[in-house]
From TrEMBL:
UniProt-recorded Gene Ontology molecular function terms: structural constituent of ribosome
Entry GO CC: ribonucleoprotein complex; ribosome
Record-stated family: Belongs to the chloroplast-specific ribosomal protein cS23 family.
Annotated protein name in UniProt: 30S ribosomal protein 3, chloroplastic
Length: 110
């Protein structure tokens, strides 16, 4: 006795109306807050910007230069003054700033 297989026809997916028209709808990206750095031999500059997808970048602070200024502390005070920035986001940004400052310090302290 033998088994013979029957191939099932794959049902063709009919394109949606948007696919027919070639319309691509991207999800709306939320604005985000990012750190910007200026990496130099004697100082490192840190600034805070807001990125609005599709529109550009808005500076939220001047550059704070470490070690001339306590850039981390100035950044912390700035972030705490922005009620719309969550505590989690505040901590994440300060941790990123700490990591970059430490990397810069390790690079130029030798």
């Amino acid at each position: 006795m033998f088994k013979h297989s029957v191939k099932k026809k794959k049902k063709k997916k009919t394109p949606t109306e948007k696919e027919k028209l070639g319309v691509v709808v991207k999800p709306i990206e939320k604005p985000r807050v990012v750190l910007k750095f200026i990496w130099m031999q004697k100082v490192i500059g840190i600034a805070l910007n807001q990125v609005i997808p599709g529109h550009g970048t808005i500076p939220l602070s001047p550059y704070y230069f470490w070690p001339k200024e306590d850039a981390w502390e100035q950044l912390r005070l700035l972030l705490e003054g922005k009620a719309w920035i969550s505590r989690n986001q505040l901590h994440a940004l300060l941790n990123q700033a700490t990591d970059i400052i430490e990397l810069w310090h390790d690079t130029y302290s030798n």
